[in-house]
Amino acid sequence: MTKYEIMFIVKTTMETEKIKKTIDSMKKIVTDGKGKVVETKEMGERKLAYPIKKELNGYYCVLKVEATPEVISEFDRKAQLSEAILRHLIIKLDEE
After folding, report:
1. Which pTM does this prediction carry?
2. Domain residue limits at 64
3. Residue from 66, 46, 74, 67 nearest 58 by CA
4. What's the 3-state SS for the chain?
């Protein structure tokens, strides 16, 4: 399996419970595809550099995962469709 780092920004205009559910559902995409979430870092609410979809703040979350390219493409697809996620970035980490 390949190692990836995924960063995504969740809308902060939702309730805290919905933000946590969104993060859990994104982790579940990886685990359902037989991937493994190695580390989760919630960076909290921060001001965005510029408005995205009329939002001024976002809740940042970083996941370090081990997964197949198919799982990552499914994560990418669902992140694009999600109303709760403003932006996401997937980086393939170098093998050590």
Report:
1. 0.91
2. 2-92
3. 46
4. CEEEEEEEEEECCCCHHHHHHHHHHHHHHHHHCCCEEEEEEEEEEEEEEEEECCEEEEEEEEEEEEECHHHHHHHHHHHHHCCCEEEEEEEECCCC
Which tokens hold the place of 48?
């965005």
Q: For residue 65, give the CATH number of its domain.
A: 3.30.70.60
Query: For the chain, what is the domain count?
Result: 1
The closest alpha carbon to 45, from 56, 53, 33, 54, belongs to 56
pLDDT tens digit sequence for 2-19: 999 999 999 999 999 999
